[in-house]
Amino acid sequence: MADTHTTADALPSPNLARRGIMFILSSPSGAGKTTISHMLLGADEEIQLSVSATTRPKRPGEVDGIDYHFVTEAKFDAMVEGDDFYEWAEVFGHKYGTPKGYIRKGLKEGQDFLFDIDWQGTQQLKQKDEQDVVTVFILPPTLEALRHRLETRAQDSEDVIDRRMDRARAEISHWAEYDYVVINDDVDECFVKVREILHAERMRRTRQTGLIPFVRGLMG
Ligand SMILES: Nc1ncnc2c1ncn2[C@@H]1O[C@H](COP(=O)(O)OP(=O)(O)OP(=O)(O)O)[C@@H](O)[C@H]1O
Ligand SMILES: Nc1nc2c(ncn2[C@@H]2O[C@H](COP(=O)(O)O)[C@@H](O)[C@H]2O)c(=O)[nH]1
Fold first, then answer.
1. Atom 2, ligand 1: which residue's CA is nearest?
2. End-to-end CA distance of the chain
3. Secondary structure (H, E, C), 104-171
């Protein structure tokens, strides 16, 4: 039952305002981070995807401006020159970068952002914005399952799949740099775990600076 007690010396209302979180998902290619990202974006209205720019060709079904900003090498290089990226890296022979644009402003206003980026980008974001960054590494249950997922996704040639599998071990070696590690065996279970991490991180005491006057009031 709710507590209906009132007092003349009303406490300041709790101010739940906080800075936004940079919620990063990384994994070897094919482990499922795009799938988990889409599930999270569909289930949680308070988080928004950081849409990367890339020089990689569009896959069937991908939409410019939604999945990626697909740009030419020249445009990407001009963005690097113009200091337009928060971070950028070369992955599997193509360039990928996080445009700064709205992200810094959004974080200040309490907007959470989801990043589907590799370990190189994660290291760069951690160096720049340690306190806002939460990192999650997704592992496949086995390397056989990983290859099977890349093959059944059917969006890359056998050659590209081979190159992604060759890189998988090197990428997995970065797992210890992450705050959380989740195995994506059953996709629904993995999603629930990732969502729980996000929920818990939102309540981390160090983010709840808006509660300070309220807590001081409680302590009298
Ligand atoms: N738990 C799972 N069990 C079986 N298949 C899965 C599971 N999770 C994802 N998949 C499938 O595996 C394929 C690869 O997933 P996804 O594209 O999300 O991987 P990714 O980590 O984002 O890869 P990339 O880094 O190449 O973008 C997709 O076809 C997806 O539907
Ligand atoms: N450092 C960054 N890595 C990124 C970015 N956007 C995507 N990625 C990573 O690239 C690989 C390949 O992605 P794919 O869509 O071609 O399969 C994957 O690990 C992504 O996480 C970015 O902006 N910066």
1. 187
2. 25
3. HHHHHCCCEEEEECCHHHHHHHHHHHHHHEEEEEEECCCHHHHHHHHHHHCCCCHHHHHHHHHHHHHH
Q: Where in the chain are the domains?
A: 18-214
pTM for this entry: 0.92
34 is in an annotated binding site: yes
Element at 26 (helix H, strand E):
strand 22-26
Q: What is the pLDDT of residues 118-165, one digit of tens each?
A: 999 999 999 988 889 999 999 999 999 999 999 998 888 899 999 999
**The domain 18-214 belongs to what CATH superfamily?**
P-loop containing nucleotide triphosphate hydrolases (3.40.50.300)
Which residue out of 35, 55, 91, 156 has the highest number of ligand 2 atoms within 8 Å of its CB and is therefore the one to mutate? 91
> Is the ipTM reported for this complex over the cut 0.95?
yes
